[in-house]
Amino acid sequence: MLALAVSLKFQRMQKVDNPELIYLGRSRLHRNRANLIQTLHTVAALADIGVKTRLYLPPWHKTVTPQQRCEEMGISNTPDIRGVQLLHRRWPTSLFPRFYKRQLRKARAVFVRSPELSLGLGAQGISHHFEVHTLQPMHQKGMLDTIIDYHRRRLIGCLIPISQSAAAALVAAGADETRIHVSPSGVDLRRFEELPDLEPERLARPRIIYLGRISRDRGLQILTHLAASGSGEVRLVGDCEDRLTELPNLHHQPAVPHREVASLYAESELVVLPYQQSLSTADAMSPMKLFEAMAAGRVIVASDIPPIREILEHGRNALLAPPEDPAAWEAAIKTLMHNHRLAGKLAQQARQDAAAYSWTNRAAGIARAIGLRN
Questions:
Q1: Measured between alpha carbons, how far is residue 197 from residues 202, 320, 342 in Å?
Q2: So where does this one cross the membrane (predicted)?
Q3: What is the pLDDT of residue 276?
Q4: Which of 5, 80, 206, 365 is the most buried (most CB within 10 A)?
Q5: Closest C-alpha to 342, from 305, 370, 363, 317
Q6: For residues 82 and 109, what is the distance between their CA atoms, to the nearest angstrom?
Q7: Is the pLDDT of residue 245 over 90?
Q8: At residue 12, does pLDDT exceed 60?
C-alpha cells in the first residue's frame, strides 16, 4: 500500500498539461534492452514531429537519469518521461488504468506495446492503440482472443504489428484488417551515415559480427560453426545465456551502450542474424539490429524466415540461409569471400534501402494511423 500511496502522490505532483499522446511502457530505464531502445527512439521521434507525447515507465534506479539514457542512445532531445510505481510488474496491470483514468481519457490517444497493459486498459473501458511485438506468448497465455475482441469492439483502435507476418496472423485470428498498421523497427540514420563504405577486398578474411543476446534460439550453433570452420573472425557482442565453446576465431564481449553500435559495425565487414524458428518472437519480429546493419552498409547474412524476408531479399540486399543448416551459412560466407562484386552490391543496396526505416518515418506512420496527423 505504501507504493500505491507514493504513486498517487506522484500523480498529484505532475503538471496539469494535456499531452496528445500518452505512451505506457513496462521497460525499466536502468536496463539497456532492445524494447527500451525502441520505445525511447519512437517517443522521441513522435515529439520531434510535433506530437506532444508523454511516456510513463516503471520507476528506475537512481544510477541513471532519462537524459543520460537518451544520450547513450544518441537521442538529443529527452522526451517527457515519468516514472510511476503502478507500472511496476509487482502490481496488477488494471491498477494504473484505474487510478490514471482521468488523465488517460484527456489524451487524444493512448499507446501501449504490452499485451498485459492492453488488457488492463480494455478492462477499464479505456480506448487505446496496441503495438504488437510477439504473438506466440499471447497464444500461450490465452490473451489473444481477448485482444481481438477488444479490437473488434474498438477498445483497441489500431493494432500496430511490427511485421506483415504478424499482421496476417492477427487478421487470421479475427482482427479488423482496416485498422491494422504495420510498423517495422527503425534506425537512427545519422549515427551510421559517417561510416565508410564496405571494402569488399577485406572479405578475403572477413570480420563477422553478431550483436544482441546470445543463445541457442538466436543461432549460437551457427555462430560457433562459422568460427570453427575458419569462415572468418567471429565477434559476439552481448549477454550470453550459454557456455561458449573456446575457439581461436571466436571472440566475445559484453553488451555495449547503444551509441557504440555504429563503431562496432565500422570494424566489421559482415553481419550475421541467425535467428531460429524456436525463438518466441520469430513469427512477428522486426529486429533493430537488422536496420542498423543495413544503414551501416555491411554485408548481411540472415535467417530465411518470413519476417526477415519482408525486409531482405536474397541476392538483392543480403544473402538468406536456412536457420538450422550450419553448412548453408558457411557456404554463404564463402560465396561472399570469393565474390567481392556481389558483396559490394548487397551492402550498397542494403544501405540505400535503410533510408526508408528512419525513426522519423516510423513515428509519422504511427501518428497517421492513430489519427494524430494527416
A1: 12, 22, 14
A2: none
A3: 97
A4: 206
A5: 317
A6: 17
A7: no
A8: no
Provide the phi-psi class of 255: left if phi over 0, else alpha when psi is between -120 and 50, else beta: beta
Residues present in the chain in total: 374
Banded pLDDT at 3 (limits 50, 70, 90): very low
Instruction: Read off the pLDDT of each residue in 95-113 and give the average, rounded to a whole number.
Output: 95
What is the identity of the amino acid at 359?
A: W
Q: Where exactly does CATH 3.40.50.2000 map onto the chain? A: 2-186+358-369, 189-357
The candidate with the shortest Cα–Cα distance to 126, out of 153, 159, 90, is 153
Which superfamily does CATH assign the domain made up of 2-186+358-369 to?
Glycogen Phosphorylase B; (3.40.50.2000)
State the cell numbers at 210: 553478431
Do 203 and 269 form a contact (C-beta atoms < 8 A)? Answer: yes
Residue 154 vs residues 53, 143, 373: alpha-carbon distances, Å = 22, 17, 19
Instruction: Check: CB of residue 275 under 8 Å from CB of residue 285.
Output: yes
3-class secondary-structure state, position 171? helix
